[in-house]
Structures are given as structure tokens and as C-alpha cells.
Amino acid sequence: MKGCTFKRTLPSGRITWGYSIDAGKDENGKRVQIFKSGFKREREADDALREKLNEKAEGALVAPDPHTLSEFTLRWFSEYGPRRCSGKTLERYKQLAAYILPLVGSAKLKDLSALMLERALNQVKDAGGRKQTIKKVNGARTTITTVRPLSAMTVRHVAAVMRTILKKAVKLKLIRSSPMEGVELDAVPHREARALDSEAMNWFLEAARSYGIYEILVFAAGTGCRRGEALALTWSDVDLVHGAVRIAKSLEQTREGLRLKSTKTSRTRTISLPASLRELLKFHHERQAENRRLFGSDYKLDLNLVFAKPEGDYLAPNSVSSKACLIARKAGLGRGVSLHTLRHSHASQLLSGGASLPVVSKRLGHTSVTTTANVYAHMLPKDDLAAAEMWEAKFQSAVAQTGKVRIS
Predict the structure, then answer these.
(1) Which one of 25, 83, 92, 367 has the fewest beta carbons within 10 angstroms of its own beta carbon?
(2) 231 neighbors 317 (Cβ within 8 angstroms)
(3) What share of the chain is helix, strand, coil (3-state, %, to 5)?
(4) Would the pTM of this model clear 0.70, i.e. be above it?
């Protein structure tokens, strides 16, 4: 059945017209029909039916879906998300979705609008954050929760999650278009990635010697590798003879535990080791041999990790990051310095020293040189000045040789 119009007599005696159309079958194989009534004239119902039939012919017909946004979001996290996202990313998506679902989650998918979502995101930005502090009141410890604004960047991340989820609803033809396409968000203030100069970096690394993660921090500073990439590194990935290291995997920490996954870009890269880092890794390998001897059969020899617990097991990424932040504060570098700061510092120092963008981009494992340029644009003024001076030198040389304003 393609579709038909029908007449309906209301209890008041008034006559209205409507239409019904076959919209195919749902995911359970059950027949789905679209009904709409309330038209004053038969001609209006006919015109509306014809429009729906055209949508069906073009493959754009959408049957009204009874699910709420919260219900479909739960479905996305259970059926679609795990196939496309890592465990850590999925955890973060759930945290972000939790900001907005209490505000609009009860709305049916078909009733969602750009205005509704934009208002909810603005509300999240103004008072979506929560800060808990523990204070003593009359000798008893009391947890006090205060409301605070969220950053514009966090709100954009919330919006990105909603955009991804509703895009899937469009593909499943549960809604005709995503209302997120009409949402406008506040601009995010530009913040340059913080980096340490050589002196501050050395101060940071020296402060780490007595905390058990000195070698990890030196490796991060000397290669620009991400935290998970360093903690997943095995000795089979390290070539101490030629001074190179292969980055092929990453260690991820989720609520379910630790797991290995591919790198952020799913690409393997090989980068050269600085001479001092090469010597440090040789010494580290020798000291690690003593741990293998002491633990004997209890040592996790099968993991063959470069950076590991004394018994050879994986180090928890979050613990390493926390310890790095603690070291930075102890060294007087402030709260803004972390393990990831060493990655930024590596790139910044190379670019300041004249290394090319493609080389730095490759060492960092970025998807493209454009990504590197966008993140570290503030480090390139010297390159721009050098280009201007190069042009001027060539220009003046041509003038001197020919006596004319001409470049050959």
C-alpha cells in the first residue's frame, strides 16, 4: 500500500481529513505506518500525502520515532559507540552527555529542535559544572557542592557528542535532519600550548630523579611521544644500536582496567633517539635486568616493557601523570605543567631551533603538518623572519649584479 487519504468525523460533528502512508518496517520487522490528520479539506490531505510519497520515492521518508533522546543515547552507547570509539573515549563521551541529558533527555527525537538544544547548552555553560569541597562543620566533615560555569571548550565537546549521536539517528532515518546543525556556540578563546624552555625542562627532569619515573619523563622530553605510547613501549620496539624507536601502540586506562590499543592516528612511526636518551635507555635496560633477576619467575618477562613496575607489569597512566604533576609543583613550575607539557616542549624547542614542520609533525605522530602548524604557530615567527631576510638578500644581490630592480 502506497498511501491514502481518509475522512474523520469528530465528536463535535466537525469533519477533518487525514492521510496514512506505509513507511516500511522497523528493526524488528514490524510494519510501520505514518498517520496525520486535522486537515480542513480533502485537497490539503491529498497535497500532504503527495509530498510524503515524494519523500518516500527519494528515500527521505522518516517515520516518527517514539524514543526519547535519553533512550536513543543509551542505545548509541551500547550498540554503536563501542564499535567506533576506544574505551577511554567512550567513558569521556558518557561524562559529556551527562551534562545535557538531564535538561533535554526526556524529549522525543522527533520533537528536538535547534533552539531547545542551544538553550540547554547555554544552560550547561552557565551552571553545568560542579565543584565539591570537604569542610569541617561543628567538627564533622561535610561535602559542599557549588555550581560553577563550564569552559566554552567543554561545552563544544558536549555539543560534538550530541552531534555524533543525532547524526546516527539521521542515518537510521529516525529523524529527517539533525537539529544540532542549527545550533550556534560561543567562540573558544585561543590558548597556546604551554611549553618549557631548556632550562625549565632540565629543572623539571632533575626534580624527577627520586620519584621513580625519571626515565619516562626524559623519554617524553626527548621524543615528544604521548603518555600511552611511552608506557606501551617494549624493548623489541627499541633499536639501541642505531638509536631509533618504533611507536606502534598505546596503553589506555579505563574504569575497566588497562588495555593496549593502536596509536591515536592508528599509524606506526619510527623516530630517532637523541644520543643522551639512547645512553640513558642502555643504562635503564641494564638496571632492569637486576629486577628480572630479583623477581625471577614472578617477573612479567612476557610483557618486555621498557617502562614498568619493578615486577615488569604495566604502569597505570593516570598514576604516572599525577606523579609528574606533583614533581612539577615540587620543582616550582606551577600547576599548569604536566607530563603532556614535555611533549609540547619537545616540539617547541625543535621548531625554535629551526627543525622543519614535516620533521616535527612526524616525530609527534600528527595526522598532518597542518595540525602541527595550528598547534605551534606561535613558535614560527623566527622562521617567518628568516624567510623575509632570505628574500631580501636575494633581492639585493640581484640589484647589485644588474643595477635593476629585478629578481632572476
Answers:
(1) 83
(2) yes
(3) 50, 15, 30
(4) no
401 phi and psi, to 5 degrees? -80, -35
384 domain-assigned: no
- Separation between Cα atoms, residue 250 and residue 239, nearest integer Å: 18
CA atoms within 13 A on the CB side of 274: 13
Q: Which helix (H) or strand (E) holds 250?
A: strand 250-254
Residue-wise pLDDT for 289-307, tens only, equals 999 999 999 999 999 999 9
Q: List, for residues 63-83, the tens digit of each pLDDT value.
A: 566 789 999 999 999 999 998
Q: Read off the CATH number of the domain in which 97 is found.
A: 1.10.150.130
**CA geometry: angle 241, 242, 244, nearest 5 deg:** 110
Backbone φ, ψ for residue 127 (5° rounding): -150, 35
Residue-wise DSSP of 48-116 = HHHHHHHHHHTT---PPP--BHHHHHHHIIIIIHHHHS-HHHHHHHHHHHHHHHHHHTTSBGGG--HHH
CA distances from 40 to 20, 36, 44, 242, 370 (A): 16, 12, 7, 83, 58
